[in-house]
Amino acid sequence: AKRVVSGIKPTGNLHLGNYLGAVKQWVAMQNQVQADGGETLFFIADLHAPTEWIAPADLRAQTIEMTATLVAAGIDPNRSILFNQTRVPQHSELTWLLNTVARVGWLNRMTQFKDKAGKNREGASVGLYDYPVLMAADVLLYNATHVPVGEDQKQHLELARDIATKFNNDYATDLFALPEPLISAAAPRIMSLRDASTKMSKSNPSEQSVVKLVDSDDTIAEKFRKAKSDADLLPATVAELADRPEARNLLTIFAALADRAPQDVLGDYAGKGFGAFKPALADLAVAALAPIRDEMVRLLDDKAAIDSILNQGAEKARALAAPTLKAAQDAMGLLA
Ligand code: TYM
């Protein structure tokens, strides 16, 4: 049976990139995998958040907010195990064990670290450097078979496979299953609405570049109206958009929101301009996001209830994680 595991950082609100690249798949997989007798685990990666500075009050509030958002988006805490890393201490404990297996040379190749640390590598936190090892622990702890993520996390999951393979070899065991990254075909990488050479992200300084779940309907519509595009008409085939990254990105978003193939969408818009395309795109985005936003706001009326969802999820997660940690300790000769 499949065991699906994935996480999201509580650093800011959910945006369209997270939603289309990850969370939408999570909800779909929850429904499919459960029907096949598998299991789905989704968590708030709160331990990953402070690898870059985040104020404690923000971390606290956003952990609750992100949980409410996931529930509002369709993650059902009675069917999926929904928790935050901190309440499952085995994540931290296994990370330490895996730190002894991961090689410095492997971590030096991680592009996210290079991007995030930028020129000031000496000033980056050790946590930011070690971030992918915590991610490996997140999935190996549950013997995840499938990990639905955006394309930007693929390299981290390949590292998790390398770590699992080396652990299994070094300690002559088959303890860890190799996790398979599942990259959304429809929305592997949603780009900024202002600059299609950078991905849509919470940390982009331009508010206009990222459609957030907490945006009002009017703000969502305005962001699409002002999204960078070009003066050309939409072509008949996707191939003709190869040199038009902004146009390609808007088409990708449209198709992913509508659950249609990009080529199929062009069937409706070939020969038309963005003046016709953008309002339809804005309507689709509002139709997808507004109900989630409104439900999230409603759920946040009772923050204690959200906190208790995380507690109950953590209890179930610990029951799955504890035997794996113990087996890893045993394999290494640690007296647990
Ligand atoms: P995070 O919080 O940055 O993003 C959550 C998920 O959203 C995807 N994503 C995108 N997909 C398409 N286009 C975009 N512009 C875009 N931006 C973000 C991310 O790929 C991710 O799937 N390290 C992870 C969290 C994590 C995790 C894990 C994931 C911690 N442990 C273990 C899987 C397994 C992260 O930073 O996600």
Automatic annotation (TrEMBL):
**Catalytic function, reaction form:** tRNA(Trp) + L-tryptophan + ATP = L-tryptophyl-tRNA(Trp) + AMP + diphosphate + H(+)
What's the Enzyme Commission number for this chain? 6.1.1.2
Look up keyword Aminoacyl-tRNA synthetase and say if it applies. yes
Enzyme kind, highest EC tier: ligase
GO cellular component terms given for this protein: cytosol
The listed locations are: Cytoplasm
Per its UniProt record, what SUPFAM superfamilies does this chain match? Nucleotidylyl transferase
Q: What is its main location?
A: cytoplasm
List the GO molecular function terms: ATP binding; tryptophan-tRNA ligase activity
Q: Which UniProt keywords apply?
A: Aminoacyl-tRNA synthetase, ATP-binding, Cytoplasm, Ligase, Nucleotide-binding, Protein biosynthesis
The protein's superkingdom reads: Bacteria
Q: Name one GO biological process term.
A: tryptophanyl-tRNA aminoacylation
- Does the record bear Ligase in its keywords? yes
Binding positions for L-tryptophan per the UniProt entry: 138
User: PANTHER family this protein is in?
Assistant: TRYPTOPHAN--TRNA LIGASE, MITOCHONDRIAL (PTHR43766)
Q: Of which family is this protein a member?
A: Belongs to the class-I aminoacyl-tRNA synthetase family.
Q: What does this protein do?
A: Catalyzes the attachment of tryptophan to tRNA(Trp).
Q: What is this protein called?
A: Tryptophan--tRNA ligase
| Underlying gene | trpS
